[in-house]
Amino acid sequence: IMDFLTLPKKQEGLMAEKFNAFMFTDNDSGRQASLIQLTEADLPDEEVLIQVSYSGLNYKDGLAICGKGIVRRFPMVGGIDLVGSVIDGGQTEYIKGDQVIVNGWGLSEVHWGGFSQKQRLNPDWLVRMPSSFAESETMAIGTAGYTAMLCVLELEEQGVQPEDGEILVTGAAGGVGSVAIALLSGLGYQVVASTGRQETHDYLRFLGASDFISRSELSKAGRPFQKERWAGAVDTVGTATLANVLAQTQYGGVVTCCGLAGGADLPASVLPFILRNVHLIGVDSVMASKERRQHAWDRLESDLDRNKLTQLTTVEPMSALPQLGPKIIAGKTRGRVVIDVNQ
Ligand code: NDP
Predict the structure, then answer these.
(1) pTM of the entire predicted model
(2) Lower Cβ count inside 10 Å, N or C end of the chain?
(3) Does 237 sit in the ligand 1 pocket, CB within 6 Å?
């Protein structure tokens, strides 16, 4: 009791102020995912204290909520991304009020993440929020949309131009797919959307898709070498779909591979590479350099149609996460889901 009574004022305040977080635990009664209350004193020992505004629901968050890997330390606050403002930047370049974004860097895997009203983070993980965005827009983009931008950058850097031909986007109505379509069509590319949900065609047409190919057509095993069609592709599905995409890519075409919504294997042949000079480019967002991230966010600021972004976004509270996790894994969410951590 004496210790408590003699606590410095600041620490006393910290103990009193509670905030909400969504946490994964693993103990004798098994894996749990639940909304809990924390104090600042519970947060990790990192230098920058952030007032979190929004996080996002990403495929990886779905895996974590469903107990399918991802989380490597317990207890773990979920959420692989966040946007918010600095409360205390410590000895870093960040000062109170700076608006920052974090994607990846092991959040919700080995470091506590964005499903929390406050978080402490390493300054190296922070990207300054481009000033013309509203905070909610950056999480409408989220890790999925930033990854879509990384894929588009790769297509551009590999020299794929709008006049070269059609660009295929697989998993089209998902988060990565939706933002990729909006970006590519805005840049003048002709985009073909592969979706398993016919009811999303009007939505995908609004985002900029000019033609469709059904998910089932691309996901069944195909010949290793097929009629050339795609100048480029953004693949979020993997497995037989990616094998078919490679087999249908034009001479010298470029396929970016960023996801495994269909599976992690790749039952393909080397023929597209050695006979058609097809390029397969891997895209990782989690450990991308700070410069690459800043570049991607700057391009999102200048290139992404905000009206399309609004149309592809829904907002949900943290309390909905237990229902949203299984939904995204089943491929039943459309576009992007923003998590309002203060709702
Ligand atoms: P979503 O769940 O929002 O989108 C995935 C889409 O894939 C679904 O909407 C659905 O689209 C399609 N799909 C779902 N299940 C299957 C299936 N069994 N076979 C074929 N298609 C399927 O997820 P995200 O867009 O957020 O992420 C997509 C992928 O990209 C995930 O695997 C994710 O892990 C990965 N990713 C990778 C990153 C990286 O750094 N490399 C970063 C972010 C995401 P439709 O209904 O239109 O067919």
Answers:
(1) 0.94
(2) N
(3) yes
